[in-house]
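ok trying again, last paste got cut off:
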Amino acid sequence: MLLLLNHRAFMAAPLRSIKRALSSTSSALKWEGGVSMVQGASRGLGLEFVKQLLKKNEKGHVIATCRNPDGATALCDLKNEFPERLNILQLDLTIESTIEASASSIRERYGSLNLLINASGILSIPNVLQPVTETTLTKVQKSSLLLAYEVNSVGPILVIKHMWPLLKAGGGSGTERDVAVVANLSARVGSIGDNHLGGWHSYRSSKAALNQLTKTVSVEFARKKDPVICLLLHPGTVDTDLSRPFQRNVPEGKLFTKEFSVNKLLSIINNAKSHDNGKFFAWDGQEIPW
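nice, full thing came through this time. structure:
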């Protein structure tokens, strides 16, 4: 009897290994082209990222998140165009439970992520957050500082926190990269070394905080040898709702279209290597000082 049990155990071990291998292969084939998530995808650069990810990669899957999917008309139009490869989820950066719910949904449907793009950000809200008035310290308001910090800094890091296991599971599988990539949209005005003009206290400081938080996360990823890297990306001044109130002072030739900027940023993402972990790049691939 003991001999029979040992024989069964001996036979079961290789069978389990074969099943695991087949399951792993099946999963890799299922998501050929990779699985990308764009947080803040209802308009502007986030929406353009979704468009280009879908159109440039015929096999890749994209998860687009935003606060109000029902009101995201352009995103819904893309869903009709790519019904099998685009999944839209509700996520509010200021409500962590919605981030957790999105992570759970992605885990159940895909099991992994290969790319996370945090595209959400606020610069100005009429009568609430107005950088044009923050030209002097006397105009700085606590409410503006905290709101900018919550959306531009805290929110993206919480998204990374909850998507981390999925990114570790995905790594570079299904893509041409060796690693999964977290790309946080920052801004040159968040650079302390590049700050020669002052002003815009809330926006500047929130992006500087995002830079520091992302750099800190990148150190942890490297220490734990996770197949994930973090990038900070400055898209340039792009013709979007975010920049529209401030475009009159932009030099000729320096106001980019969404298509141009996102194409440049995706090139940086797609060519990223492990040694780029924690770096801050402008749209043209040049590193920006902290």
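cool. The beta strands are 35-39, 61-66, 86-90, 115-118, 180-185, 228-234, 237-238, 255-256, 279-282. Residues 54 and 185 are 19 Å apart (CA to CA).
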